[in-house]
Design goal:
By secondary structure, this protein is of the alpha+beta class. It has helices at 8-13, 62-77, 124-140, 159-172; strands spanning 20-26, 34-42, 45-54, 99-100, 106-111.
């Protein structure tokens, strides 16, 4: 069911008090964060969530990542009519959107969006629809105050520097 070194029920209980874990399974084919689908109960109500261990090798300061996500999702929630169009993260018992465990791993949790499907190899129609969705996302954020965001990966959006790095890599021919 789960990795023996991680007490998933303990992690989840920092987001949802008295959550009784029914199952926790690896979910999807992501290549950055470790993602799990979590099913459980609080009293008699069964619910499903996504639990992610944030890759701290990629994101050196996960709290800044979550601060950015909180700013963007709060901004978007004010602009959409359908709540399914925005992720709904759960706050941890410390009031933040991520929990740091005893192994210095960072976790986040959000509501599972049912009746959706991730596609690893889209066909042309799915590619087209993803373009429309991305355009809508960009449009919703067109008046977002980007200067309020934290830089979580230095120079990630520095096209000039990234292109120079690419050219150097080609020349080095490693």
């Amino acid at each position: 069911m789960t990795n023996d070194k991680i007490n998933y029920n303990e992690v989840v209980n920092h987001f949802i008090e008295d959550f009784k874990l029914i199952s926790c399974e690896k979910y999807g084919n992501g290549h950055i964060n470790s993602t799990f689908i979590v099913c459980g109960k609080v009293e008699a109500e069964e619910s499903t969530y996504i639990l992610q261990k944030i890759n701290k090798n990629v994101f050196k300061n996960p709290q800044l990542v979550m601060d950015n996500i909180e700013k963007v999702t709060c901004f978007m929630k004010e602009k959409v009519d359908n709540p399914r169009e925005v992720l709904h993260f759960l706050k941890c018992d410390n009031g933040t959107l991520c929990y740091k465990d005893q192994n210095d791993e960072y976790w986040r949790m959000y509501k599972f969006v049912d009746n959706c499907e991730g596609v690893d190899r889209p066909n042309i129609e799915e590619f087209f629809e993803s373009g429309i969705a991305f355009g809508k996302f960009q449009n919703l954020l067109s008046d977002f105050p980007a200067e309020t965001l934290n830089e979580t990966i230095p120079d990630f959006h520095n096209t000039t520097k990234r292109y120079e790095t690419f050219l150097n890599s080609v020349e080095d021919n490693a």
